[in-house]
Each structure stands twice: as structure tokens, then as C-alpha cells.
Give the backbone structure.
Amino acid sequence: MDDLALSVRLARPEDAADLARIYIDSWQDTYAGVISHSLLGAMSLKNHTARWQNTIKGPGTVLVAEDSHFGPVGLTSLGAARDAGLGFEGEVYTLYVDPAFLGRGTGRALLTSAFDSFKDRKLRSCLIWAHARNNACFFYEAMGGKRIATRTTRLMGELTSETGFGWRQLATRKQKRTLPQ
Ligand SMILES: CC(C)(COP(=O)(O)OP(=O)(O)OC[C@H]1O[C@@H](n2cnc3c(N)ncnc32)[C@H](O)[C@@H]1OP(=O)(O)O)[C@@H](O)C(=O)NCCC(=O)NCCS
């Protein structure tokens, strides 16, 4: 398989439909067997496009990973940690790669850019919650995250266990690089 020619940039309002498509495809691929088929099948491109339009407006940050040929192939949203009690400053709220492009470095590119974005804002640590049985847990460990907490939460209304991954000290930036708009 050819390498992807990836770049990561800030999302723009016109990316919302692409982000919604990636998000829905990824949920249907990842949570089949965890969330009911009917709920996953009912995810609407129109509704999720509107939700991503709002998310892109802020206050958090949305980044898009784009291949020079295929266009957007992944996304992440991030901002201040929502659970201050755990002692982390930044949080990656979502991270999704198009199921057609898994295992080709997009997740790594997005997470590295998310960490850079935190460092630019003087947020020195990062927390991410993942479904406890999600393969993403192995990805977060491969990226240096440590299992620091568990919780029970609702995913589309269904009770699920989540594992929190933490990066207590994000490595200092080697070189200043500003994300393209
Ligand atoms: C988790 C996810 C973001 C990883 O993205 P990706 O583009 O497939 O991962 P990459 O190719 O960048 O992999 C980076 C590293 O993680 C490792 N890795 C990725 N997925 C892995 C898995 N399922 N099991 C073990 N290791 C994994 C890779 O081997 C690689 O390590 P290496 O560079 O040492 O070889 C992607 O699989 C995804 O979107 N999954 C579905 C959605 C999801 O669960 N998101 C997280 C919600 S909390």
C-alpha cells in the first residue's frame, strides 16, 4: 500500500460534511457489537454535519488530517480537560480515522499535532478517554499513554466502561511549527 501524503491543519466550516462522514463511518466500524445496529444505522449525515459546523466554531479546536490525493482522512477535536480532578490540562475529545485508511500513520499524525497544539497553548499534559474494549486503547499505549483511570459512562444511551489514558508531561517541542489554517 502506498504511503499517504498527509498534512494536518485546522478544520474550516466547509470541512463539516467530510468530518461527519468520517465520524459516522468510524462509529459504525468501531462500535458494531457495542452499540445497537439500529442506533448506529440511524446516524444522520445532515445532523452530524450541523454538529461539526458548531464544533469547528469553538471553543475547542478541530484538526483535520488530509491526504493530497484522497482529501480528509481523519479528525481530532481537543481543548481544556473537562475533568480537572485528574490533574490533566488538555484533553483530546475525539480522534477518528476513516476506516478505509487505518494503520497508515493518520492517527499518529493527528495525535502528534494535537500535542503540538496543547504545547502552543501552554497545556502541558493530556487526557483521553476510550471505550475499554476499543482497539484504540492499544494505539494510545503505542503512542506513550498510560492507563490512569476508569469510569462508566453512557455511549448513545448505553452504559459502557471507559479507560482514561494520560500523558503527564508532553515532550517539549523541538521546533516551532504553526498549524496551517
Ligand atoms: C485508533 C485510531 C485513531 C488509530 O489510527 P491509525 O491511523 O489506524 O493509527 P496509526 O497508523 O497512526 O498507528 C500509530 C501507532 O499505533 C499502533 N496502532 C494503531 N492501531 C493499533 C491497534 N489497533 N492495535 C495495536 N497498535 C495499534 C500502530 O502499530 C502504530 O505504531 P508504530 O508506529 O509503532 O507501528 C484508528 O484506528 C481509529 O480511528 N479507530 C476507530 C475510532 C476510534 O476508536 N477512535 C478513538 C476513540 S477514543
